[in-house]
Amino acid sequence: MSQLLPAARSDVPAIAPAFPAAPPEPAAAVTTVPGARTAVVGLGYVGLPTSLALVASGARVIGVDISPDRLDDIRADRADLLDDDRDRLRETLRAADPALRLTTAIGEIADADTVLICVPTPVDRHLAPDLTALRAACAAVVAHARPGQTIVLTSTSYVGTTRDLLVAPLAARGLRVGQEVWVAFAPERVDPGNDRHRQELTPRVVGGTTPDCTARAAAALARITPLVHRLSSPEAAEMTKLLENTFRAVNIALANEFADLCRDLHLDVTEVIDGADTKPYGFMAFQPGPGVGGHCIPCDPHYLLWQVRGQRREAPLIETAMRGIAARPRRVVDRIRELLAGAGRPLLGARVLIAGVTYKPGVADVRESPALEIIGELVRAGAEVGFVDDLVDTVRTPDGGTLHRVADHTDREWDLVVVHTGQSGLDEAWLRGQPMVLDATYRLAGLPRREVV
Fold first, then answer.
1. In this structure, are 59 and 133 located in the same domain?
2. What is the C-alpha separation between 274 and 358, in angstroms, rounded?
3. Do 49 and 193 lie in a common domain?
4. What is the pTM of this model?
């Protein structure tokens, strides 16, 4: 096991499984085409598109989720999907013999030859890993595993998770990993709302507990990806995922810092980044913004930092980057206050509209969106805050309140409009008529009264 793995993780309490945990009677091992019968545990932003990609490859899929409401949303075509995936889902569910079976019964994974675990791994309010869903899902899969299955964990987590939550419990059940069941880690690579990086176009990495585990997991994943890169162990694959998203976090923090420096020096940071991006080697463009949200960047590096601290080590560059990311929404609020003050208007009582509240364009997802913190800070300061976003009807503010989308925002007068997320339906002609626009996306250079963070 990796030297980074803490000897004990007593600070993260054991969680009772949310699924029924009674183990089934052992079944005889089976041999079939890898991935031809697959169970996907967790049908969120990763699990559902993965299920649909498997169906498109010819597999029969058992889609398991503990939430009946989630399954109802999927059946009713309310799930947030790319257009192509939405078409796939409709076609699949309308078939006389659907290749995707939706269920809340975890025991049905016994019918599958391959099991993919795709559940969320957030952080709590102390920025420590919240392993509730992951522990429950892994415990349930272990309880219902049978000989002959390949089990692949895809959820981002600390280095050593696969051995802790799958390999050791399976061995305790008497199942020999690498001989009777095969276990690997293959981190998800799903970019919600981006059809240029569909799973069928995106390479995957996989690390198995044994070489045979790696081979079997790679064969199953090869159904939905053009390339499977094999690593030496689950730990190497787990660390690969942490590196991918920590790399993004550090570079976004750097882009935000350059944006502040460029404003102080009366330079356009977008022009500077575009100039640097002409270099064909040694540079990758990252864009500044109001902060980061979603399932990866605000959360994943904290899994690594938590583990590093357990070894009493330091990762100062990562820690500084994550502090900068966490502080970015407050920097936006400070800038709002500065601009209003410059116009002779206090924040108290000011009418502020937030345009776009999802964490990225094109997805109806507000998880960890900086807009929520910005709205909360403005409300606490006494501002009259509204929001508009074609993809979101209501948002929950950090203080537990509920804010509804403004239906008639073009008929109202606003002291300041903050463009937080550049949704496709944003009316730039209307923005041109506003007295002041804070462009937190850095994408609206043509507006006459535009300011940046």
1. yes
2. 25
3. yes
4. 0.88
Task: Give the Å distances, CA to CA, from 212 to 181, 190, 205, 230.
Answer: 10, 26, 15, 11
Residue numbers of the domain that contains 93: 37-232
The CB-side HSE value for 253 (13 A sphere, CA atoms) comes to 20
- Compute φ and ψ for 208, nearest 5 degrees: -100, 165
Which of 288, 321, 354 delimits the end of a domain?
Answer: 321
CB 54 within 8 A of CB 40: yes
What's the pLDDT tens digit per position in 413-434? 999 999 999 998 888 899 999 9
CA pair distance 329, 308, nearest whole angstrom:
26
Residue 333 buriedness (CB in 10 A; 0-12 / 13-18 / 19+): buried
Distance from C-alpha of 83 to C-alpha of 195, rounded to nearest angstrom: 9
- Residues 148 and 96 occupy one common structural domain: yes
Reply yes or no on whether 118 is catalytic.
no
**Residue 370 corresponds to which tokens in the numbers above?**
């900086």
How confident is the model over 208-267, as pLDDT tens digits? 999 999 999 999 999 999 999 999 999 999 999 999 999 999 999 999 999 999 999 999
pLDDT, residue 35, reads 65
From 118, 213, 262, 296, active-site residue = 296
Tokens 């569910």 found at: 93
Dist CA 143 CA 170 (whole Å): 8
Same domain, 295 and 390: no
